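Extended Data, record arsenite-transporting ATPase
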Amino acid sequence: MLLTLAASRRVLFVGGKGGVGKTTVASAVAWAQAAAGRRVLLVSTDPAHNLGHLWQRRLGPDPQPVVARLDALEIDPGATVEAHLAEVGAALRKLMPPHLAGEVDRHLALSRDAPGMHEAALLERIAQLVQDGLTDYDLLVFDTAPSGHTARLMALPEMMAAWTEGLLHRQQRSERFGTALRNLGGDDGIGARALGGGEARTPGDRDQAIRAVLQRRRHLFAHLRDVLADPTTTAFVIVLAAERLPVLETIELQASLARAGIDVAALVVNRRSPADAGAFLAGRRAQEQVHLDTLHDALPTIPRQELPLLAGDVVGNAAIAAFADLLARGG
Ligand SMILES: Nc1ncnc2c1ncn2[C@@H]1O[C@H](COP(=O)(O)OP(=O)(O)O)[C@@H](O)[C@H]1O
Ligand SMILES: [Mg+2]
């Protein structure tokens, strides 16, 4: 079921609680799709990076070939924030008069630890990867951070778009105001120097520059929002264990994703205990069924696939391929 779903989509988000098997499932899907001939980019957005460990290689912030047709990368939220601030800083410095450079630096230093800064930087990187990735790859697989974080992230494009929209609006008003002022002869270039910081920079140039930065962000976030909300392009998959808390968290995650306008296309119940390996595990399996019944009652229409508990950890290409075979048994 999961592989059929992945085959019919361009973007797959894999979410769920920590430790349930997100990285393993995301990697196996990416492997299977690459083996089937699609060009795949596998992206880890979880700060607790495990992708490199699983593939037994060092991964970085840029796409790196892992096997034929499959590239992988790990987004480093800290480095992403620094890159984001450097870009914003460069833009601000260009727009502000030189004597305010200290103000810009202070503002950026404060922003570094501001609430939501990591999410905003991470989201901008995801948005960029989605935009570029959809031209370079057939399928993008996102191995996401544990539940709460992801749901907040998914609601963010909407907020960021609204925020950018508001800024553009204000900027348009001030631009009209500036034009009116100039027409009245109220701005003879002194204001231009004070605001623009150089003879070549008129208020018009400055407005254009701000507009260009805001427009770029607006397009980026609007594009991400469109991609996320389009169920023919994107599927969100929740991985979980058949235990009480993971089941309750899955139900909550589905609800918060629904509020953000995102459908959950599949549930993957990982580490199902076997029925035929002794009374102890058979007992576990019966207990798991109670929690799965709760899951079914809450989310009766979302397709579900189960994967068996394995004796060992999944590490390295051969183990990922074997896990992909288990996935393929479910369609
Ligand atoms: N079906 C399974 N049976 C046994 N171990 C598993 C199974 N699926 C995943 N694991 C192991 O569980 C650990 C956590 O999996 P991982 O994919 O890193 O979870 P997450 O990304 O959700 O934190 C890893 O050591 C992985 O090898
Ligand atoms: Mg992980």
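Summary. The pocket of magnesium ion (ligand 2) is lined by residues 22-23, 46, 50, 143 (CB under 6 Å).
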